[in-house]
């Protein structure tokens, strides 16, 4: 196990690159190469200060300010080109990271509450959340035009500031074919990720297939 307490924008891109290599290998039917591709980050465990329980999780559970509509969340990520509108870095939807975990549970740990000591830092670094631009508490509606893509870490780091002060960098960029690894998702599920939680992955695969055609 390797304890990770912080990461920066370069690490986010490194994680995205390593996952791309691993996921592409799975899609090519080569699980051995996929495991080898994950090796540089295998067994990393988040031990930093970001905690979903104190910030993101509570807000979601208590205030209910997060969009409940899963398709709407996916639409936000697609529109933003699977990039964080705060830092501009690549994002990988949580369902796809969960699929990587389901295939390689020892290399990439997962905890539904993103708990330190239990989860791999890629979830904090890469998984996007759909957050309100104008806060729900200030009357911001739960619609596509008022939602933006933020990495879980970026969202939590910015939670002390007024959401209005956040500078979205814009939406999907022309010429950028980054798709959040969604094109590989069906192959991940077919390779065995679907065994652990079949309904969850089936729904998310269908959702992205429907929204991205
Ligand atoms: Zn970010």
From TrEMBL:
Stretches assigned to the HNH nuclease domain: 108-156
Any Pfam family matching the protein: HNH
Parts forming coiled coils: none
Domain of life (superkingdom): Bacteria
Protein name, as recorded: HNH nuclease domain-containing protein
């Amino acid at each position: 196990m390797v304890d990770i307490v912080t990461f920066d924008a370069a690490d986010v891109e490194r994680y995205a690159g390593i996952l791309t290599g691993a996921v592409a290998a799975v899609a090519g039917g080569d699980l051995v190469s996929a495991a080898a591709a994950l090796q540089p980050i295998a067994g990393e465990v988040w031990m930093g200060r970001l905690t979903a329980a104190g910030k993101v999780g509570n807000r979601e559970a208590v205030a209910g300010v997060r969009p409940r509509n899963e398709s709407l969340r996916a639409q936000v990520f697609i529109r933003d080109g699977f990039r964080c509108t705060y830092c501009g870095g690549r994002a990988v939807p949580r369902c796809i990271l969960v699929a990587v975990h389901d295939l390689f549970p020892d290399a990439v740990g997962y905890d539904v509450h993103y708990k330190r000591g239990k989860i791999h830092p890629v979830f904090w670094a890469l998984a996007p959340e759909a957050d309100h631009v104008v806060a729900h508490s200030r009357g911001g509606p739960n619609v596509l035009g008022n939602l933006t893509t933020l990495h879980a870490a970026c969202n939590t780091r910015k939670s002390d500031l007024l959401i209005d002060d956040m500078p979205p960098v814009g939406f999907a960029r022309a010429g950028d074919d980054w798709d959040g690894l969604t094109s590989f998702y069906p192959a991940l599920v077919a390779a065995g990720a679907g065994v652990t939680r079949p309904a969850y992955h089936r729904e998310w695969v269908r959702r992205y297939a429907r929204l991205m055609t």
